[in-house]
Each structure stands twice: as C-alpha cells, then as structure tokens.
C-alpha cells in the first residue's frame, strides 16, 4: 500500500511538473453528492427525483456563481472517501463542519446550525428525560458534567441508535460509551425503524432531522427528549464539503452562500423545510 | 392493504415505474457483469490450461483471492480505488483533475471480476470434459485451429459449460444487489429508497423480493431452453 | 503516524471482530446444515413435503441474501404481531436476525448439495442395510447420511467459504464483525482502500484455513484416495 501511494504521489507530482504549475481550475460543472435519505436536508420522492433543503439551496446558489450543479445520490457511509477519490466534487448532506473532518476536507461557510438531541418513544419509559429542551454546551465542562450526571440513572444500560460517522456518534462515543450500548446504522431511517420496533431505546440525531422524521405517520409515536447539545466536537453547523485542493470551488460556494444569506433566501428556505430559522448567525 | 397497493402503483404518487426502471437497471448491470465475467473466465481458464508457469500462478492467485474475500469488499475496493487509478492514469497523460468511473462501470467490473473467478473453473472443467478423441480426430482430418474452435471446441465447450454458466448467471443477478452501495439505482437501492421514504419497509422488500424472483425465474427458463438447444445440436452432430 | 503503523493499527482493530465473524459463520453453517439435511431427507422421502421444500429452495435461491437480511431484520420488526410474539425475544437482537437469515439462506443451497449426495448413495448399500434389519432411522444415521455427506463434502466446503464471506453483510444490521469495524475505522480515518484491503486479507486468511481444513477432512474421510487425490 505504501508503495502504491508513493507511486501515485510520484506520478501526480511528475505530471504537475511536466504540465507546468497547477493552474487555477475554471469551474463550470460541479457534481454534488447527497444521500437522498436525510429529510428535510435531502430526500427522494416517489417519482424518483431528489428534493429537500439542500437541493433547493444548490438550485439557488449555483446560478449565482455560474456553476452548473448536478446531484448524485450516494450512501452516507463512505461519502468523504468518495469525495477524496474524485467520485464527485462536493458534498451537501447536512454534514457538520468539525475539527476532525477539517483535517481531511475543506468546507464552505455553514448554511445551517442546529443542536443534537435524543428522540424516544412517547409512551416509553424514557419519555420526559431530565433537561429536555435545555441547551448544553460541550465547551462548558461543568454544564456537560451536570447534564451527564442527571442523565446517567435514566440511561444506564439502555441501547442508543445513531448513524455511523456522524458528530452524534462521536458525541455518544466520547460521553456515553460507558453508560449505554451504542449501535451504529448506515442510514438515519434505519435507526428510526429500530426505535419504533423497540430494538433501541432511543436515537440521537440533529434536531433539524427530527423536524422531518417525527412528522411522519410512524414518527408521531416518538418525540424529542433530553438536552439540546451544542458546541465542541459538534462543530459550527453544516456546510458544503469540498476537497482541500479546490480552493476556487470553495470561494464560489462561499460567495453564493453569502449572497443567499444577505438577500434572505437562506432564511426563506430554512422556514420552508425546517419550519424554523436554522441559519447560522 | 389499499395504501400498499397505491404505494406500488404507477404515476406521480406511486413507486411502480421507479421499481420497474430499477429492475431493468438490475438486468442491464447483471448482463454487463456476466459478460465481463465470461471474459475474465476465458482469460483465467486459458491461463490455467496454458503450459506457462507464470500464467498458472497468476490465474491461481486470481481465483483464490476473488473467491476468498467478500464481494461487498471487492465492490468497495473498485468503487474507491477505481477512480484513483483512472485519475492517476489521466494525470500521467497530462490531464488534470479527477476522472471518475461511474457506478455502472464499477459494478460491472467488480461483480464481473468476482464472477470471472468462478467462471474460470466452469470453463476449465468444460474444456477438460471435451473428449480428446474428438480433438485428435479433428486434427487428423486436417482442421485448422479456427475451424476446430467453430465446429468442435466451441459447441462442445458451450454444451458442457452451460449448466455451470447458468448457475453463474443466477449468482450474478443476486450479487448485483450489492452494487446498490455505490449509489447505482438498481432494484435493491430503489427498494431501499422506497422503504425509507415511505416508512413501510416490508411492502417494498416484498416487491423487491417478487421482482428478483421474476428475474431469476424468467432467465432460468431461458437458460433451460438454451441448454436443450445446445444438447440437441450435440445429438445431431 | 506512518503508513505501516496505520496498517498495523487497523489490523489490530479489525482482528477484534474476527471472533464474531467466526461465530456467525460457525453457528449459521451448523444450523443451516441441520436444516439442509432435514429438507433434503424430507424432499426425498415425502410426497407432500417435496413441493414445499422445492418452493423454499426456489425462493431462497432466487433472491439476494442482502434483501433477505433486510426483510427479516427491518421488515418483520414493522409488524406489531411479530413484536408481541415470543419470537421477538430473539428477533429483536441483530445477532439472531443475522443467524436466522444466514441459516435459512445456506440451508436452501445446502439442501441441494445434500440431495446430490443422497442421490449418489449406492442402492446396494441401502438394500444391504434393510436386509440386515435396520430401521429406516438407523439406516439413515448409519449408512445413507455418512455416505451422502462424504460425497457432498467438497461442494459443501465451497458453500462454507461462501458463508464466511456472507457474514460481512451482518454489518448492515449493526453487528460489529470485521466489516462492521472496517466501516467504523473508515468513518474516523476516511481511508477506505487501506482499511478494506486489510479486511479483505483477514477474510482471505480465514477462508484459506477453512479450505485447508476441509481438504484434510476429505482425505481423512476418503482414505482410499490417499495423497494422490486429484
């Protein structure tokens, strides 16, 4: 593996030398990866077409910066390696900007920001957990300790479902690993199914996700519960994921997003899809 | 029950047309992968039967590795590794940026290469089953290589290999479901999308189940006809 | 961290999943084989059961295992009558769903292999057993099944290898076997190729050992073949 990586690097370096210094790339067409299964950010309709906040947002900002954007649906699992492997040029999938992800990819400025929280069955034993609706910042250790102390007796020995490689999975692994059994799923809808089926006692996701999922016929059996976690490893909101080698593309997305924010489009789309204003301040 | 029927119906609100399109995609990617598999199988069988030692070792390694690691991993390796390789090649030729290979190609190649490992054995077995007497007789009457291939080796090989190849086809058809992880909207992925979006997974799983059964049954019948046809040819000869 | 360190660390973490992978494979092959033998014997011996067994084999062999796993795990869990039954104690656990799906699947393939083995039992051996006064059950236990299984072993060995590979699908229903752990590592490091290569190596080694083991067993069961087995 080491050899092949070396070889690939050498080849790329060589071609850069032969082809002259790497020129700033002129972006015209951009392929954006999305899950198509993370409502209301992105979802797939019965006619097979993608829809959702991010689909509308891209349709709004791409023309502003003269980009022709197309979406392709891909699994969340492996969406970053896919970007790095050049399968597509950008990711719009409700992906939070975190220090960990910033080590490997770049992000545009954020377009939504929302806390992470739990959802439980309304009629289950976990309804009305302590600190429900209270904001708890991971940057404030005293506040976090108090919240965990209050939750521990309720959550001890429970099983929690969470989507793989998400900030919520990171949060659970860091703070709740010794309290609960953590089960990871490829898709958020799968942990929802297991919540309704009773295989997990609670799930954790972004509160923007619960806006949509708790509003489905099955989702009405469940409700948000527990504190609203913000800050720390949860990052600064969701943005467009990009390769670090494409600063020109980042500049274009940043420009488009800034314009959409300035003229109120971002807020309008937020109210349309999330029923509330989740535009980062 | 009524709502389930509506869910699978056609038109704006139903998933029926999407499911049918996806079934066609499954068929298309399976055919492509199967043909690729035959290609790899012929190469593999040829290498295993050849007298060159290196060819033998290469073919052995190929079949051992492909039959030993999960197909899911092979697909992932092609998915993530494939465009890296292609991009590297493109860079070598002086081009810039990334060059992806699309999910259809990834699926075709990955499932084809795995299937090729099994087809290598099928084809090798079929070749060895050809009575040497027939080959000698053909040579004795002065047939050239091409004529022999067309009149004797080809038909005989097909006859002996057909049952095994039939199994391989069914295998490929089912393996194609794993390609769903690359984002290609074939039947399995469509079933999954429908299941997730509607919140009624069982309806979609059942629909997918039925459509796969239709595909395997229909193609199974077709294969039996082909087998009967090739056997008839044998008797006449 | 250098490349070698990364690979070594990945290997170490993946190896933690090996016991679960092996357990899944062993338990489902064992359950599947028992079911396969029962199905094959039923099919050979009962006119009523014959079409039912054929239908079972047809359905299970005609659909992807991935879909079968989803159906059993997410599909069944959707129905409240399933959730209120005693079977739910097992079905609510991903482990048992995986075992169920893998066993039912391999039993369909296995029963065909065993059927081939049963057909190869010389009728003389069965007649001799009957003449010797063995009951049907004893006949099966002492004569028919041992001969049939010996005949079926090479093909069944291939099926076992396939089962080891199939356990990788259990990761989809949250089980942290080798592939599940591979996903987890990729979600931290975003290095899919290296991690999947390591995982692939583990499966390759497992299957290599399995193939060797079956080969040794074959030679033991067929001593007349000796070392010169082709």
How does this structure look, described?
Chain A has 281 residues and is α/β, with parallel strands linked by helices. Chain A has 10 helices and 14 strands. Chain A is 38% helix and 21% strand. A 6-stranded mixed sheet of chain A has the order 9-13-8-12-10-11, with helices on both faces. Chain A has a 5-stranded mixed sheet with strand order 5-1-6-14-7. Chain A has a 3-stranded antiparallel sheet with strand order 2-3-4, covered by helices on one side. Chain A starts with a helix and ends in a 7-residue tail after the last helix. In chain B, α2 runs antiparallel to α8. Chain C has 11 helices and no strands. In chain C, α2 packs antiparallel against α9, α4 crosses α7 and α9 runs antiparallel to α11. Chain C is flat. The chains are: A alpha/beta (281), B mainly alpha (237), C mainly alpha (230). Chains in contact: A-B, A-C, B-C. At the B-C interface, α3, α4, α7, α8 and α9 of B face α3, α4, α9 and α11 of C.
Number of helices of chain B: 9
* CATH class (first level) name of chain B: Mainly Alpha
State the low-pLDDT regions of chain A, or none. Answer: 11-23
Secondary-structure class of chain B: mainly alpha
* Helix share, percent of chain A: 25-40%
Q: What is the residue-mean pLDDT of chain B, rounded to a whole number?
A: 87
- Our measurement of the CA-to-CA distance between the termini of chain A, rounded to an integer number of angstroms, reads 44 Å
Biggest sheet character of chain B? none
* Main sheet record of chain A: 6 strands, mixed
Helix content of chain B: over 70%
CA distance, first residue to last residue of chain B: 57 Å
Please write the string of helix (H) and strand (E) elements of chain B.
HHHHHHHHH
CATH level-two architecture of chain B = Orthogonal Bundle
Number of strands of chain A: 14
CATH superfamily of the largest domain in chain A: Periplasmic binding protein-like II
Provide the domain count of chain B.
1
């Amino acid at each position: 593996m080491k050899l092949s990586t070396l070889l690939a690097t050498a080849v790329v370096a060589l071609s850069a030398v032969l082809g002259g210094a790497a020129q700033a790339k002129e972006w015209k067409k951009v392929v954006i990866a999305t899950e198509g299964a993370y409502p209301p950010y992105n979802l797939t309709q019965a006619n097979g077409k993608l829809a959702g906040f991010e689909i509308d947002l891209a349709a709004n900002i791409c023309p502003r910066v003269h980009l022709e954007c197309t979406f392709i649906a891909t699994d969340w699992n492996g969406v970053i390696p896919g970007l790095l492997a050049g399968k597509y040029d950008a990711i719009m999938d409700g992906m939070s900007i975190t220090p960990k992800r910033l080590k490997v990819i770049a992000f545009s400025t954020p377009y939504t920001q929302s806390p992470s929280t739990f959802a439980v069955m309304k009629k289950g034993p976990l309804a009305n957990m302590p600190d429900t609706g209270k904001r708890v910042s991971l940057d404030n250790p005293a506040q976090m300790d108090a919240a965990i102390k209050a939750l521990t007796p309720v959550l001890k020995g429970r099983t929690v479902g969470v989507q793989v490689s998400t900030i919520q999975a990171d949060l659970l692994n860091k703070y709740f690993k010794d309290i609960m059994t953590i089960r990871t799923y490829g898709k958020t809808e799968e942990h929802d199914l297991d919540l309704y089926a009773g295989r997990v006692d609670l799930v954790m996701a972004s509160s923007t996700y619960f806006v949509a999922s708790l509003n489905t016929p099955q989702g009405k059996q469940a409700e948000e519960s527990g504190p609203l976690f913000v800050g720390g490893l949860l990052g600064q909101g969701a943005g467009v994921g990009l390769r670090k080698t494409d600063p020109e593309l980042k500049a274009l997305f940043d420009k488009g997003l800034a314009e959409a924010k300035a003229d109120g489009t971002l807020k309008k789309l937020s109210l349309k899809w999330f029923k509330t204003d989740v535009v980062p301040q | 029950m009524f709502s389930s029927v509506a869910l699978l119906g056609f038109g704006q609100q139903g998933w029926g047309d999407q499911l049918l399109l996806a079934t066609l995609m499954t068929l298309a990617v399976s055919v492509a992968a199967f043909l690729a598999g035959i290609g790899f199988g012929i190469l593999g069988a040829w290498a295993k039967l050849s007298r060159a030692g290196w060819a033998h070792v290469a073919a052995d390694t190929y079949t051992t590795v492909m039959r030993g690691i999960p197909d899911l991993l092979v697909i992932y390796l092609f998915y993530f590794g494939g465009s890296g390789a292609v991009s590297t090649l493109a860079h070598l030729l002086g081009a810039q940026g990334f060059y992806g290979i699309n999910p259809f190609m990834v699926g075709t190649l990955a499932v084809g290469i795995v299937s090729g490992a099994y087809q290598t054995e099928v084809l090798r077995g079929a070749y060895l089953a050809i009575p040497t007497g027939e080959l000698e007789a053909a040579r004795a009457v002065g047939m050239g290589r091409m004529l022999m291939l067309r009149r004797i080796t080809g038909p005989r090989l097909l006859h002996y290999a057909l049952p095994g190849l039939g199994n391989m086809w069914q295998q490929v058809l089912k393996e194609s479901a794993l390609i769903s992880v690359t984002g290609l909207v074939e039947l399995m992925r469509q079933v999954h999308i429908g299941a997730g979006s509607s919140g009624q997974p069982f309806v979609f799983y059942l629909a997918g189940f039925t459509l796969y059964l239709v595909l395997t049954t229909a193609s199974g019948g077709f294969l039996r006809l082909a087998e009967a046809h090739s056997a008839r040819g044998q008797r006449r000869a | 961290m250098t490349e070698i360190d990364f690979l070594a660390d990945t290997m170490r973490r993946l190896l933690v999943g090996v016991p679960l992978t092996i357990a899944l494979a062993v338990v489902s092959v064992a359950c599947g084989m028992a079911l396969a033998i029962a199905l094959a014997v039923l099919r050979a011996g009962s006119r009523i059961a014959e079409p039912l067994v054929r239908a079972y084999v047809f359905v299970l062999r005609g659909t992807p295992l991935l879909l079968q796993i989803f159906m059993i795990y997410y599909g069944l869990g959707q129905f409240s009558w399933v959730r209120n039954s005693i079977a739910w104690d097992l079905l609510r656990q991903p482990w048992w769903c995986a075992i169920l799906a893998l066993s039912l699947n391999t039993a369909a393939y296995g029963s065909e292999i065993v059927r081939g083995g049963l057909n190869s039992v010389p009728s003389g051996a069965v007649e001799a057993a009957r003449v010797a006064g063995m009951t049907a059950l004893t006949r099966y236990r002492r004569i028919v099944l041992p001969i049939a299984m010996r005949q079926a072993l090479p093909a069944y060995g291939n099926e076992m290898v396939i089962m080891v590979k199939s356990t990788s699908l259990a990761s989809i229903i949250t089980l942290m076997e080798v592939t599940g752990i591979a996903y987890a590592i990729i979600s931290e490091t975003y290095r899919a190729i290296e991690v999947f290569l390591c995982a692939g190596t583990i499966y390759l080694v497992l299957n290599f050992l399995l193939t060797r083991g079956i080969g040794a067993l074959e030679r033991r069961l067929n001593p007349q073949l000796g070392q010169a087995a082709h």
